[in-house]
Amino acid sequence: MPDAERTPVSLSKAVTWTICAVAALGFLVDIYAILVAPLILRPALEELGHLRFGTPAYDNWAAYIFWIPPLAGGFFGLIGGYLTDRIGRQRILVITIMLYVVSATAAGFSTTLGWLLFWRTLSFIDACVEFVASVAWLAELFPEPKARERVLGWTQAFSSLGGAAVAEASYLASHIGATLPSIYNGHAAWRYTLISAVIPAIPLAILRPFLPESPVWKHKRETGTLKRPSFAEVFEPRYRRTTIVTALLFACAYAAAFGAIQQAPQITRGLPEVIHLRAPVQQEIASKVQQMQEWGGLAGRIALAILALIIVSRRTLLRVFLLPGIFIVPYVFFGPATHSLELFRYGMFCAGFCTVAQLSFWGNYLPRVYPVHLRGTGEGFAANVGGRMLGTSAAYITTHLRVHMPGVSPATKLAYAAASVALFVYLFGFLLTFLLPEPPKSLGE
Predict the structure, then answer these.
(1) From CA 82, how far away is CA 99, in angstroms rounded?
(2) Measured between alpha carbons, how far is 39 from 27 in angstroms, rounded to an integer?
(3) In this structure, how many other beta carbons lie within 10 angstroms of the beta carbon of residue 231?
(4) Bridge partners of 186?
(5) CA–CA distance from 25 to each of 158, 199, 338 (Å)?
(6) Where does 177-274 have alpha helices with state H?
(7) CB of 373 within 8 A of CB of 229?
(8) Which of 112, 139, 136, 110 is nearest to 123 (CA)?
(9) Residue 10: what pLDDT?
(10) Separation of alpha carbons 359 and 362, rounded Å
(11) What mean pLDDT do residues 278-301 have?
(12) What is the pLDDT of residue 307?
């Protein structure tokens, strides 16, 4: 790999840290957009489609809502990663946030399941492109390895605050929805929860157009030294192993998230202490369980940010979260998820800790293994083809595997399916770490 990017960063400290703050808020918005889905899924399907949990029609639409948006997001995110290398990081980020504001608002006003799926898909596309562009932008502001690790680690920790925020928004919507303006002559909490995603996006829409481009990318573009990105190049011999292994490991992380922990709100409503309660109360409890998972995810991201500065080997760092996850995450869904709300809440904290930290890991790792002209393209392939297109298919698998599981209630069957998927992807991910290349000490040119 070539030497480090030595182009001096000419931005002032104030501008640099403003970019960091905006990127952190962007990561929060991304996860807010993604994790709103499991919270609004059941009430939206019941209202718009008159579908009942546990029926084949419900399972099909749940799979569509969980999988089609990230599938489309992965495809367009891959294109967005390429465009990030072609036309710049900042320009892409401005476009995505404007689209996000429109799609998040429109989703809350959906009148059919088809329109809900369309607007959720557009929101997911924006989130997929956002991650790649933001990581590349931040990495190029801090060529010094330790500083880069710290910034990428701590800014990505805000993603989990996004998950906690959307859980709190869902909880508040179920409490104060009746006092908010009517939407289609009703006060459905799931609609306000979707629209609330616009609130943290407003500062981004205001600030991003005025922020500068990545100095490294801009310098290379202006001096004519920026190479043209190519999808084929990431599969050339020097990058092929990195590209394939990182995509598969990213897929495992997303499979654990979508195939297991994002099923928690539906499973929670089927627990013995919850199933006989009124629907708004069930929604509140499901929100609190997801919030517990997000606090665990935040703890995992913070732990990774600290350990990244201590543990030199990236393989070892990833195994710190994968190895305990092999035992913890399947147990949470096989045991507490079927009989104890209190144990399930604490279990979801641990599951979030092991799973969500892996997503921060890739934000730190990927910028180090691709040069400037391939950074968005390479990251885009791992995050979008591996994570969003392949990994999120676990939601479809879990939803349909449910019918083959033991258990009396649909929620118990879903919990067992989630446990099975989690066990497989954690084991497979752990084995893949033996093939993961260690990155060079410096960013490539």
Answers:
(1) 18
(2) 19
(3) 16
(4) 183
(5) 7, 11, 36
(6) 189-195, 201-207, 215-223, 237-259, 264-268
(7) yes
(8) 110
(9) 65
(10) 6
(11) 90
(12) 94
pLDDT of residue 9 exceeding 70, the answer is no
In the chain, where are the structural domains located?
Answer: 13-210+235-435
The structure tokens listed for 256 are 């654990």
Tokens read off for 280: 């708004």
Each residue's pLDDT tens digit, 313-348? 999 999 999 999 999 999 999 999 999 999 999 999
Question: What are the structure tokens assigned to 61, written together?
Answer: 């639409």
User: What are residue 183's DSSP bridge partners?
Assistant: 186
Q: pLDDT tens-digit profile of 202-218?
A: 999 999 999 998 888 88
DSSP 143: -
User: Which tens digits make up the pLDDT trace of 252-273?
Assistant: 999 999 999 999 999 999 999 9
Distance CA 77, CA 93 (A): 12
User: Buried b vs exposed e over 153-166: b needs ≥16 C-beta within 10 Å?
Assistant: bbbbbbbbbbbbbb
**Cα–Cα distances in Å, from 182 out to 111, 113, 177, 294?**
14, 20, 9, 30
CATH fold group of domain 13-210+235-435:
Growth Hormone; Chain: A; (1.20.1250)
What's at 154, amino acid-wise? W
Q: Reply yes or no on whether the pLDDT at 143 is more than 80.
A: no
Angle at 11 between CA 6 and CA 17, to 5 degrees: 110
- Identity of the residue numbered 314: R
pLDDT of residue 252: 97
